[in-house]
Amino acid sequence: MDTLQLVLFIEGSYVRFGYPLVFVSSFIEITPMGWVVPGGVILAAGGYFAFSGHIHLLGVILAGWMGAWLTFLLAYLMGFKNGNWLVGKLHQEKNAAKAKGMLKHYGPAILTTSMLANLTRFWIAYIAGVEKYPFRKFFFYSAISSLAWVSLMSTAGYIIGSERGNLENGMASLGIVAWVFLIVAIGILVWSGKKEFEEFAQEEKI
Prior knowledge:
Oligomer: single chain
Distance between the termini: 46 Å
Strand content: under 5%
Number of domains: 1
Helix content: over 70%
């Protein structure tokens, strides 16, 4: 299978399962196990393939938004109901303390930008529930945060998709070199996920 065949295979998978895939990956990415799934890459790929018209950009954005937003809301409700139970269970006292400080000092600003907070984004939502942050405000700010992030990643992929012809011609001419680039890109993703997992595991030991 050459590079172009691989792209077509992935596109076929998006045509068949794209929206559920984007929803699930966006949901998982916000959880403490988010290092397992490169949700941002999956969103961008959805936008990329949406340019061809086989799937819709709006559908990709809505699916990703619902997945990410649902995680935020569930995290808030878990914190509201269970207090710091999950923090202790996963030994995430340090991340929870950081999230609490950010929420206290920045309030709406950190809720709105929390998708960019990496390992603490789940805990910001969770601690908001623990601290009984007003649900209406949380509902609104978490919606903006998740929609902004999903729209950014999907639209970036869509813009890249507008150059799909040139990209595929380039990959075809590069041949084996394109595979090298692909393997390197996958390696970077795996390394990033491993690094984030190591940080997560180290937090558990503290």
